[in-house]
From TrEMBL:
Record flagged with keyword Flavoprotein: no
Designated name of the protein: Globin
CDD domains cross-referenced by the UniProt entry: TrHb2_PhHbO-like_O
Keywords: Heme, Iron, Metal-binding, Transport
GO molecular function, one term: heme binding
Family in the record: Belongs to the truncated hemoglobin family. Group II subfamily.
Pfam families in UniProt: Bac_globin (PF01152)
Residues that coordinate or bind heme: 123
Superkingdom of source: Bacteria
Length: 144
């Protein structure tokens, strides 16, 4: 007898919830003053970004592989090299995702399962060092 495996996609409510999550995420990014830096690295219209994120999250959570069927392997880090993502942009992205997650997924346990790997991924996507940090192998300038 085979046991049915429930994916995160199914557990959170499937397509309508993933749509709501990704829509709310970009709505927050577009509206929150504290997300202005991450918003600035996106195109003027967020529609394309929202659709790609919906497709990616659908497959990531165990639903249909929409993103890979349309676009191939995600190669997330390399696809994001066009945008400078430093700690500020990363943290603002995480702020939007955390709020959207909290607003759209009722179960704290499911939110926790989704949050941890997404938070690690956001840190992996950072491709710009903090501006106030001296480059490695170079001493900070003496400002006296």
């Amino acid at each position: 007898m085979t046991e049915k495996v429930t994916t995160l996609y199914e557990a959170i409510g499937g397509d309508p919830v993933v749509r709501a999550l990704t829509h709310r995420f970009y709505e927050l990014m577009d509206r929150l003053p504290e997300a202005r830096n991450v918003r600035a690295v996106h195109p003027p219209s967020l529609e394309g970004s929202e659709e790609k994120f919906y497709e990616y999250m659908t497959g990531y959570l165990g639903g249909p592989p929409l993103y890979t069927d349309k676009r191939g392997h995600p190669r997330l880090r390399s696809r994001h090299f066009v945008a400078e993502i430093g700690p500020v942009e990363r943290d603002e992205w995480l702020l939007c995702f955390r709020r959207a997650l909290d607003e759209t997924i009722a179960s704290q346990a499911l939110r926790d399962l989704i949050w941890a790997p997404v938070e690690r991924l956001a840190h992996h996507m950072q491709n710009k060092a903090p501006e106030d940090k001296a480059p490695e192998n170079k001493a900070p300038e003496n400002k006296e």
